[in-house]
Structure formats: C-alpha cells, structure tokens
Amino acid sequence: MSRTQAGSSGAGTAHPDHLGHVIFIAAAAAMGGFLFGYDSSVINGAVEAIRDRYDVGSAVLAQVIAVALIGCAIGAATAGRIADRIGRIRCMQIAAVLFTVSAVGSALPFALWDLAMWRVIGGFAIGMASVIGPAYIAEVSPPAYRGRLGSFQQAAIVIGIAVSQLVNWGLLNAAGGDQRGELMGLEAWQVMLGV
C-alpha cells in the first residue's frame, strides 16, 4: 500500500513502515499483562512452604495469599487518575518499579505480615497494569489493528501464568523437590517469589 493510499483511507490503517513500531510498543505495554499473570500465580508454588515456615493454618494462609487482591482493587481504582495526572507511560513505569520492589520484599520477608504487605504492593502494581496496559495499547494502535494488538495484553497474562508455573517447577527441581530446600542461599519458595 502506498503512502497516499494509507493516508486516503483515514485513520483506519497504519503505514507499513510504522506498524512494526506500533507492534513493538503494544508488546512492551503488554509486559504489564505478563507481570500481572506471573505475579498473581507465582505464589502457587510457595504455599506449602509458607505454611510450614510461619506455622499458620489454612485460614491465615489464604488471607496472606488473597491479600494481593486488596492491592489489585486499589491499583485498578486509582490507576486512571494517576495516569491522567502523570501520563500512561510514567504510570506503567511506576507499576514496573512496584512489581520489582514487591518481588524483592516477598523473597526476603522477616514475618508473615511483612510478606502480606509485599503482596499488597504487588497487587497494587497488578491493578495498575490491568488498567493502564490495555488503555495504552488501544491509544497507540491504529483502528484497523486495535483488536489484534489489544489481545496482546490477554495473551501476555496467560503466558505470565504459564511461565510462573514453569519457573516454579524448575526451581523446585533445582532444590531437590523441597519448597524449603536451599537454593542460592535462600529457601526455594523465596527464590520463586523473587524471580
């Protein structure tokens, strides 16, 4: 398609030279979806070890695992206003920093309540990513490609879930099949949450 044809058909098409760039931007924005999937399911590999380490029952353990949803709700509820104030890119950068801080904190908790706090922070990042990623992808995508590029976010979430389980499996095998086995100077479950 020539430049004239692309321009004459309106905003519904992107010039082929720019489509690769738009796809790259959409894929980068979908990394928030990947982290959403990864961080929301990586805890699955650490449940038994957390229960054993902190000697808690199922009810308390369930609360520590589910507390991330409080952060998700707050992150999703506030992300739009934050993005309106500082921009979508800056908002995604903040979410990325929060994902990182949460992973490090979750890997090195000194108490169960500390782990719960890091889970809330990670949940906040998940909530932000779930709102801002799709909005940004829709914003930068040409109308003719918006649906396909918008699906990057959902695909990234599923890929993140799958990768977290593969990483958990690999780390568990490296630790001799024991979630509390030593791995890189930490217990395996800590490495799972910190990766």
Query: What is the second-level CATH architecture?
Result: Up-down Bundle
Q: What is the mean pLDDT?
A: 89
Please state roughly what percent of the residues sit in beta strands, choosing from under 5%, 5-15%, 15-25%, 25-35%, 35-45% or over 45%. under 5%
Question: How many strands, what sense, and barrel or not for the largest sheet?
Answer: 2 strands, antiparallel
CATH topology assignment:
Growth Hormone, Chain: A
Described by the principal axes of the CA atoms, the overall outline is: globular
Number of helices: 10
Q: At the fourth CATH level, what is the homologous superfamily?
A: MFS general substrate transporter like domains
Fraction of residues in helices? Answer: over 70%
Summed up, the domain count is: 1
Pfam families: Sugar_tr
Family: Belongs to the major facilitator superfamily. Sugar transporter (TC 2.A.1.1) family.
Domain Major facilitator superfamily (MFS) profile: 25-195
Protein name: Sugar porter family MFS transporter
Please characterize this protein's 3D structure:
The protein is mainly α and 195 residues long. It has one domain: Up-down Bundle (Growth Hormone, Chain: A), CATH 1.20.1250.20. Helices cover 78% and strands 2% of the residues. It has helices at 3-8, 16-29, 31-41, 47-54, 58-66, 68-86, 88-107, 112-140, 146-174, 188-194; strands spanning 182-183, 186-187. Helix 3 packs antiparallel against helix 8. The radius of gyration is 20 Å and the shape is globular. Residues 1-11 have low confidence and may be disordered.
